[in-house]
Amino acid sequence: MRKQMVLHYRHWLIRCAPERVAGFWCAAVEVWRPARDPENAGEIVPLTKLFDDAADACVDGLEAAKRWIDARSGGVPPAIDAQAHLVANVSDTVSPVTMLILGRPLCLPCIATKARATEADAQAALTSIGALRDLRRRDHERCRGCGEVRRAFWLDAPSR
Ligand SMILES: [Zn+2]
């Protein structure tokens, strides 16, 4: 199964998919400039970091994509691009959290740590995800991050 994340940032399209590299995970990240047809090949964001975990690789890959896009959006300070930035921020938190908990129960502190977000942001992301998808939640579940039995959240992985 190959998980892929798609999101918009500053009107760019980002696609991020984990790839197995030498026994580790690396994110394969492709970006498309605004109004560019995603049917055509995008620009490959060069990545070198390797991770033990596919979701961690994707979180890092998305950050690299945002830095890549920021560097190519010169002359447009984020403040002027406020609306796009706001949309990006919302989906930026939601998407990594979705990726993290796909088929993997995690407690809130672990979600926040892995998504590099505050617990409040992670909680907000879970609320958003729960509005769109069937978010699973159990009070006494073994967190796959820290191993503690506590309240955990997850999404059933798509059976494809
Ligand atoms: Zn945990």
Detail the topology: elements first, then pairings.
Blueprint: E1 5-9, E2 12-21, E3 24-32, E4 43-45, H1 54-72, H2 82-101, H3 108-115, H4 119-132, E5 136-142, E6 149-154
Antiparallel strand pairs: 1-2, 2-3, 3-4, 5-6
The chain binds zinc ion (ZN).
Residues 106-107, 109-110, 143, 145-146, 148 line the site of zinc ion.
Report what the structure shows.
There is one protein chain. Strand 1 and strand 2 (12-21) form a beta hairpin. The strands form 2 sheets. This protein has a 4-stranded antiparallel sheet with strand order 1-2-3-4, with helices on one face. By secondary structure, it is of the alpha+beta class. It has 2 domains: 1-76, Double Stranded RNA Binding Domain, CATH 3.30.160; 78-160, Arc Repressor Mutant, subunit A (Orthogonal Bundle). The radius of gyration is 16 Å and the shape is globular. The chain has helices at 54-72, 82-101, 108-115, 119-132, and strands spanning 5-9, 12-21, 24-32, 43-45, 136-142, 149-154. Residues 106-107, 109-110, 143, 145-146, 148 line the site of zinc ion.
